[in-house]
């Protein structure tokens, strides 16, 4: 039997809204979540950009010197609708590949 510590995962995918309507509780929770990743040595994979709750999570994770990967579509990069990804960025051709890549980490 494998011990629980041997099954520890190293990546987690987070998806959330780009508009949090200024609810401080949501921002605080997203920021707290982002701070947990470096503490537990878990890499963040998310939909890229720096907006909304995903931006809060990724900034907090990156500020903790954590590995952050944003997966974005070419259209998102060209139109700059999501802002700058907070660390490494993987550009995919379409949303289907975006979600497939994110969930297969």
How would you describe what is shown here?
GO terms for molecular function: hydrolase activity, hydrolyzing N-glycosyl compounds. One of its GO terms (biological process) is cytokinin biosynthetic process. This protein is 42% helix and 18% strand. With 105 residues, it is α/β, with parallel strands linked by helices. The protein has a single domain, classed as Rossmann fold (3-Layer(aba) Sandwich), CATH 3.40.50. Strands 1-2-3-4 form a four-stranded parallel β-sheet. The radius of gyration is 14 Å and the shape is globular. The protein starts with 10 loop residues before the first strand and ends with a helix.
Write the layout of secondary structure elements.
Layout: E1 11-14, H1 24-40, E2 43-46, H2 52-63, E3 68-73, H3 74-79, E4 88-92, H4 95-103
Parallel strand pairs: 1-2, 2-3, 3-4
Helix pairs in contact: 1-2
Index terms:
alpha/beta, 4 strands, 105 residues, Rossmann fold
SSE order, one letter for each helix or strand: EHEHEHEH
Number of strands: 4
Approximate helicity band: 40-55%
How are the strands of the largest sheet arranged? 1-2-3-4
Task: Round the Cα radius of gyration to an integer and report it.
Answer: 14 Å
Q: Into how many domains do the coordinates divide?
A: 1
**According to CATH, what is the class?**
Alpha Beta
Q: What average pLDDT do the residues reach?
A: 81
CATH-defined fold name: Rossmann fold
What gross morphology would you assign?
Answer: globular
Low-pLDDT parts are none
Q: Architecture, according to CATH?
A: 3-Layer(aba) Sandwich
* β-sheet strand percentage: 15-25%
> How far is the N terminus from the C terminus?
24 Å
Count of helices?
4
Largest sheet: 4 strands, parallel
- Classify the secondary structure makeup into a structural class: alpha/beta
